[in-house]
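Support request, please re-run this one:
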Amino acid sequence: MLDPTSVAAISAVLGAVGSGMANEAGKWAWESTGGVVRRIVGREVPAPVAPEERDDVARMVYEQIRTNQQLAASWSAFASRVHGGPNPARAAQSHLPASIRFFTDRKEAMKQLQREATRRADGRPRLALVHGPNGMGSSALAVHFGSRPTRLYPDGQIYADLGGGGAGSARDAGTVLRTLLRQLGVRDEEMPTATDRLGEFFRHCAADRKLLVVLDHAHSAAQVRPFLTSAPGVFTIVVARTPFPGLDAVRVPVGPLTDKDAVRLLTDITDKSTVAAARATLPSLLARCGGSPYALRAAADRLCAPTLPPRQATPDSDPVHGAAEDSYQLLTPESAKLYRLMALRSWPAFDAATAGRATGQDPAVTAQLLADLADRMLLERSRSGTDNGRYHYRPGVRAHAEATAIREEQGRGLGPDGVQTEQRPRRERIAHGDRHPGLKMDPPPLPLAPEGDPPVQLGRDHGGNDGDQCIGNSHRYPVAEQYECPARRKPDTATTHDEPHKGRDERVKGARLPARWGGH
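Re-run finished. Output below.
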């Protein structure tokens, strides 16, 4: 039996994939093969045309996998899929965040979504734009709609967080498309390596599926457009703070709850006797919460045992900001410090180890503080619903934490924790995230990657196609813009495997091969 890692076997695999390029699926497979070769060899390799050129590429691959078991296993798995025929994406399960227990009102909004989801297919994308201010439950509405038992989406419900309220915080389209494709069961090596091809590939994978796609925290039509498809079985729900132009979608506004529904929500969370006992303070609480489900949930625990003097709501007050401030006032100094400092890091998610390194605290203590912040609804636990120890800020709460950190800094040069900046050691100033002009800060510990990203395999491509991640000791981290990822360094400074293949490279370069796999 032929060794699958031999030069002859590798060349045969390259030939088998190359012979199937008559259709789009074959072209994508050929392009994916180029990505596998590049990850194994460690650099860009021209696509072979003639048999002798294919043998040259096979030798490059062989030289790497013969001494690296991980790379050998990766190639063997890829080769087995080639010989076994095409590997269609597996049927997706629900990848929506966990829905909430008590969902109040929103009957008209649910009807609008149902009408769009079930209307007759006419070539227009099934598309709804759910919009509402922070804390009003627009994301919860989309998730609740998708989590109901339904036969509309037997191929699954997929979800992606687009990154917030502005272009500066948005995740790039390539990263989001890869997240969605993984939820559909597509392996990384089966995806096109070129970012500009991922949108077309996603639409190809969704063409014959019945799917619900939820795109959370969008800010513009241009950001959403790469994920839209006119496939008749796909319903896309876009969630945003405000409606924006350029999107031909059914608009579903999500406003504040009426006082009646707000009292019903408080009653569901607590009980009738608790609400009745708080009758004297209930009007001021309802005014302060402003019909925000988030603010009402945060206030429910304090309903029967108020620990703060009642505050009057102002016409322009933000219910989320007010609820966060009420919860913040009840924190211990340690929890308050952690709450402020982690908001200064623009990270999508973090765990106790990351937060401990960033703030100089013991990870075990930090884990308890993070859990306390989550219990008080100042942090959100993992969107996946699994107990993986990850936390993130909801946008409105992050804005409060950042404003609180700035407020604590003002006056006599105080830092976020109230210590004189000049009296704090430089390393501690860096850990606290202080911003001092001219101070070159040491790189902070890198955070966890956004949820949904799988562990990065050794030798993964970073040649500009998936540059949002950087590998190190088998861990994956987003790359901060101000720090250079080693995998992005120029070829003359990066550690590559070019030297053993220098002679063969020269022959391949002179063979007039196409610059890109797939010939696109």
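The beta strands are 126-131, 157-161, 211-218, 234-240, 250-253, 380-381, 391-392, 469-472, 475-478. The longest strand covers residues 211-218.
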